[in-house]
């Protein structure tokens, strides 16, 4: 990579303030990167997990949580709880991922080759050094943050690059981890309405044994940080149990989900109502454009040619009601006294223009991160997949170039060198 291209790739710019609208054809698929499902990490573990097929050091699931560090082409990722839906003692970890960039064609669709590589592995532990695990059995019976089970689904890095904020789907909890040691620095208080009374190792027991809180495996799936680093935004994957989430046979019937805002300095909380396009869809990630607009992944649970809905929406919380005091919501329809977030289409990943749809398209599109700007002046948006630790399925990173006019008011996250 020549010096000019490198300088362009690490230069961040602020787009001007323009009216809100759907993205145009200026959004370009620049290329796709992948890490093989058989790749291994630097954890030092050997042997197989309890499922009998997954290596203890196998790289997988990191597309669940993906964030830019503000430094060159370096990102961090948090694999989720491991294979077999929490039935193994997978040790939670973070990855540092460097992405090589090489232009292979004239600028345009698929003009770049992206080569991601895991360069470091950081094992996660609590303040006492006890390792976190994806095992569903490692819960604290009181439902407190003393729990050692952890299902990372969102990650963001602070301005200094020393702390990683991680959202845990099991709790849901929100933790701060030291990026030098992997130790937890603390837990950030979330609304108690998100928590269940009776945690269990089995999803059915959790659903049948609780009258409120998150649905099993439908907790805090997405995490954003405001550009100035002062606030975190945790996005629930689906409705809370008390929000009319479930119908007969525990079928999901609600078309609403909650978005939680946390002011880090004070602990102040707000909540907003997000309307899903369908009750069968789920929310997977949220990424800040500025302090009030965000990108959100909303998708179906289908893979390959069966996939029908894999979309990114732009939402705006300005003017939306704070529903923190609302204890329960109806399954469908927004109450007259509640103003939901504004939601507009931004990017359809199955649009034939991108050539991604088809047999090889992943079920789980779960990560979003802005990266360095490109020589064209476009913003880069990275979209990642969770391969569920399947050895035969690579983890994919789709890189899009977005014209500044399609991201009105964009403010890059602020990074700085700290003492």
| Strand percent estimate | 25-35%
CATH class: Mainly Beta
Determine the number of helices (DSSP H or I, runs of at least 4 residues): 2
Question: Could you say how many structural domains there are in total?
Answer: 1
The count of β-strands is: 20
Alpha-carbon distance between the termini?
31 Å
- CATH architectural designation: 5 Propeller
Structural class: mainly beta
From the alpha carbons, calculate the radius of gyration and give it in angstroms.
Answer: 20 Å
Principal-axes shape call: globular
| Element-by-element helix/strand order | HEEEEEEEEEHEEEEEEEEEEE
| Uncertain regions spanning at least 5 consecutive residues | 1-25
Describe this structure in words.
There is one protein chain. The protein has 419 residues and is mostly beta strands. Helix content is 3%, strand content 32%. The chain has one domain (3-406): Tachylectin-2, Chain A (5 Propeller). Strand 7 and strand 8 form a beta hairpin. It is globular, with a radius of gyration of 20 Å. The two termini are 31 Å apart.
Write a compact overview of the structure shown.
The chain has one domain: Tachylectin-2, Chain A (5 Propeller). Helices cover 3% and strands 32% of the residues.
Topology:
Elements: H1 3-9, E1 28-35, E2 66-68, E3 74-77, E4 93-103, E5 112-123, E6 152-157, E7 163-168, E8 173-178, E9 184-187, H2 203-208, E10 220-225, E11 231-236, E12 256-263, E13 269-275, E14 282-288, E15 293-299, E16 310-316, E17 342-348, E18 365-370, E19 379-385, E20 395-402
Antiparallel strand pairs: 1-20, 2-3, 3-4, 4-5, 6-7, 7-8, 8-9, 10-11, 11-12, 12-13, 14-15, 15-16, 16-17, 18-19, 19-20
